[in-house]
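Hello again,

I reread your note about wanting to compare the complex against the isolated chains. To keep things tidy I'm splitting this into two emails, and this first one only covers the full assembly. Below are the input lines as submitted, including protein chains and any nucleic acid or small-molecule components. They are followed by the predicted structure of everything together. The single-chain runs will come separately.
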Amino acid sequence: MFYLVIDILGTVAFAISGVLVAMEKKLDVFGVFIIAFVTAVGGGTLRDLLIGNTPVGWMKAPIYIFTILITVIVAILFVHQLKHFRKSLFLFDTIGIGLYTMIGIEKGLLAELTPIICIALGTMTASFGGVIRDILCNEIPVIFRKEIYATVCILGGIIYFVLIQFPIDGTIAYIAGILSIIAMRLLAVKFKISLPNIYRS
Amino acid sequence: MFYLVIDILGTVAFAISGVLVAMEKKLDVFGVFIIAFVTAVGGGTLRDLLIGNTPVGWMKAPIYIFTILITVIVAILFVHQLKHFRKSLFLFDTIGIGLYTMIGIEKGLLAELTPIICIALGTMTASFGGVIRDILCNEIPVIFRKEIYATVCILGGIIYFVLIQFPIDGTIAYIAGILSIIAMRLLAVKFKISLPNIYRS
Amino acid sequence: MFYLVIDILGTVAFAISGVLVAMEKKLDVFGVFIIAFVTAVGGGTLRDLLIGNTPVGWMKAPIYIFTILITVIVAILFVHQLKHFRKSLFLFDTIGIGLYTMIGIEKGLLAELTPIICIALGTMTASFGGVIRDILCNEIPVIFRKEIYATVCILGGIIYFVLIQFPIDGTIAYIAGILSIIAMRLLAVKFKISLPNIYRS
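Full-complex prediction:
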């Protein structure tokens, strides 16, 4: 139940980020909805396709489609008020990527995949909705250019796999993974930490 | 047999729309063929992947690959004459989206998915070939910007699911779904109906 | 073992081509790695998804992820020296597309698909990593515009299917397919052979 609430809040935050990018591109209502939808569920969909978990997640749980539909309607109607909620949305988004990373890792473990692949699946779950959003809006994905977003998911995944080597409860390691991602992202944004620049010369 | 003829005509119309977009981008012969191919089969392929119907449809029925190959050759040779067939092509295209929407809905029902997901799959079957075409040609998909195309598929899907609540024959509801999509699209284009503008301010 | 060496050399060459395109777009380290990764494994991943071979190939063999990771690090550190290896890289790349085409055809045969679909899968394996690379970098795929790359894979596939009609050993036909692709590509590049121009008027 607690996870479901976080999941829905994360879905709302991801969908709103899709609405904002789509409206900047002046898409019509249908376009805005599709962009919001792929931003929210695209990462998990790609993960499910690669693992072979079909029909993919959102097809079996229509709650996501309804959540996104309502989010899009509300976001379009109150788009000028959205900036007042920027901090809340950033927080939901951050909590969302923490949870989604761990959900992706868990699905990888269920499919008996190795840790490195599980971490890749977790990172994908949390960040590839945004990649598909940017591709559909004809932009080079922002997480390939500047946001220290995926790196945080990878580090959180590594922390989780290190923790479960020790005799601690699985749920605690799971929650520690989520919290470490949230903490690292907040710190990275606060202190403007970015990946090392590889274009020195 | 009757459905197969419509299916082939729709495939031809979709493939030609791919050829035209690809030639505007000055792609080479291989590029034109691939764009025509994804325009024609991309929507159904995405649907099959999401449901888990693999190998996907066109891999089990080479008739599509041959139809598209011949269409591309003829379309390239007679590209300057294509404008004389614009009305026929628009008609085939419209009949195609009616049929493809219902084919997608049917595949969703076979996979025991809920009506809203079935309608999403039908709309995807009819319209996401064009989305993939536009992405490969480095454009924001036209159906996200102006064409009232997907909306018509959604409405046709709703009509179908309303009809099957009543004690009428399944085939009649199926054909009514197709015809309602065709009628709505023709009316929408004739009266230049578009989605409400969300960029008032 | 011999095939594995070729496979790894091809993976390195493909990954480096991804690094070069990504660095031209000034992507950050994470972006460069993802582009290198999809360039190297994207074609095979798409093939596995369409056939239904999931989890897809690279998820079951982490050697690819490690090979690409090391390649990316070395390529970024020595990017200015890479031009001295252009000829070797072109050779690895060419050997790679020969092998990948035949691997794709073999996977198609295992799934009991018809020759034309097998050839499509082989061509996809060898060339669609580059398509996904270009899409993620917001470019129209280069193989749709000028490179005589996919055509060579298709011809090599046809040669293979002609050969296995005769009473010759399967392995010989397989190697003949690879060698014919390598030879045709080298000739095409040396003599600047391109597809016929369809934009005469």
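For quick reference: Chain A is about 75% helix and 0% strand.

B.
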